[in-house]
Write a structure and sequence with these properties.
MetI-like fold; three-stranded antiparallel sheet; mainly alpha; about 75% helix
């Protein structure tokens, strides 16, 4: 909310336009600390996305290939989305203690349902005529999956991975609550870094989320055959990666 107070433009109580200038100054003056915390955040996110993809991607592709398990895929996705990451961390603390492990677990729970659902929908949505034509050419089921279904499904599969990556990178700041590092160490410690530090770290989190989106968009373009880059894997629109503000509000 914008208000005028004493000739100074105020955005909220204790927050002014000067805060942004201080935040960018903080980004420069404490760039060493921020680089270390940003690297921790990227490492946590990469591990979580890698494990989530290793679990959910093969399962989703297989279920889509056999055209079964829609109820399982959709309900697992809904369950994962309904679980707040802080709740998962709270449940995991007695078993894993403070540190990286419990945060990675929460991020996996956040990312895996998105990847599972998109992988299932992508492969399951391939037109049956295309699959039958491949089978008519004498291709084995495994060859149909690898040579026909997966290339056509890549755009929608990557849409799920990109969405999961943005969510994970933005949510990894929760590691700061349980001693897991990341930029959350700054965001949740306003007493030490002041409002300028909190805003500066939040800006950097936003940039990391955009970088994750652009990185997976580039990988999608690189891995998708040239003739299929503008062809959707199914008749459903791709799910757009959420903004960081939308992630925080979820």
């Amino acid at each position: 909310m914008v208000a005028q107070k004493g000739g100074r433009v105020m955005l909220a109580a204790g927050f002014s336009l000067q805060t942004f200038a201080d935040a960018f100054r903080f980004l420069w003056d404490d760039r060493g600390l921020l680089a270390t915390k940003a690297l921790e955040q990227v490492q946590l996110s990469a591990i979580a996305i890698g494990i989530a993809a290793a679990i959910a991607l093969p399962l989703g592709v297989w279920l889509g290939h056999i055209h079964r398990g829609a109820f399982l895929a959709i309900n697992i996705s809904n369950l994962g989305r309904a679980l707040p990451s802080l709740a998962v961390i709270s449940v995991g603390l007695p078993f894993f203690g403070i540190g990286h492990t419990v945060v990675i677990l929460a991020l996996i729970v956040l990312a895996a349902p998105l990847i599972l659902t998109n992988s299932y929908v992508a492969v399951d949505g391939i037109e049956e005529d295309v699959v039958e034509a491949a089978r008519g050419m004498g291709l084995k089921p495994s060859q149909v999956l690898v040579g026909v279904e997966l290339p056509l499904a890549l755009p929608l599969i990557f849409a799920g991975i990109r969405t999961a990556a943005v969510y994970v990178v933005a949510t990894a700041t929760l590691a700061g609550v349980v001693g897991g590092g990341s930029l959350g160490d700054i965001i949740f410690n306003q007493a030490t870094y002041f409002l300028s530090g909190v805003v500066g770290a939040a800006i950097l989190v936003s940039l990391l989320a955009f970088a994750a989106d652009f990185t997976f968009a580039g990988l999608q373009r690189l891995l998708t055959p040239r003739g299929l880059r503008h062809v959707g894997a199914a008749h459903l629109p791709e799910e757009e990666p959420p903004s960081v503000l939308e992630t925080a509000a979820a």
